[in-house]
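Hey, resending since the last one bounced:
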Amino acid sequence: MLRLLLLLLFAIASTSSALAHTGGGMGGGFLSGIAHPLFGPDHVVAMVAVGLWGAFLGAPAIWLLPVVFPLVMAFGGVLGILGVPIPAVEIGIAASAVVLGLMVALAVRPSLIVAAIIVGAFAIFHGHAHGAELPAGADAVAYSLGFVVATGLLHLCGITFGLLVRWPSGRVAVRVAGSAIAVAGLVFLGGTMA
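The structure tokens again:
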């Protein structure tokens, strides 16, 4: 398990911090929307962390946090599509991985409302990045639906792994995964500052 986590951390650290923000590539529409979060390791780790944290907190957070994130992210996406500026979007995305990873690693158990506010605040940054990267001539609705579906799938990955908290060794594995996500976020944060 430790070797796998080290390999994951090495792979994350060796990638570009803004891979999902190239602005080029696929044409547009639903498939482009799905690809955007999946090919950005900064998005992947944060979205998986939402599922992990929800699973760690248990019901109703296991379902509420992964619902809050895409709903608020869609709002951020609209802001990005409309060109409404939000300062430090890349820093906000990197910080989301650090903070959400630490929530899991440190077994932080805030009230459900506080957890939802934390998740929602970071979702705005992720959504804005997705919306701002809408390819020219793309169908905004199909593209948005694609990035919301991909986000949901990433949350489900986090939830699935996070369900290991039912066993003592699984609880340790989930907290180690949270630590790896926080470290990856620090790497991304360093990349945004360079």
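Residues 59 and 112 are 10 Å apart (CA to CA).

Sorry for the duplicate.
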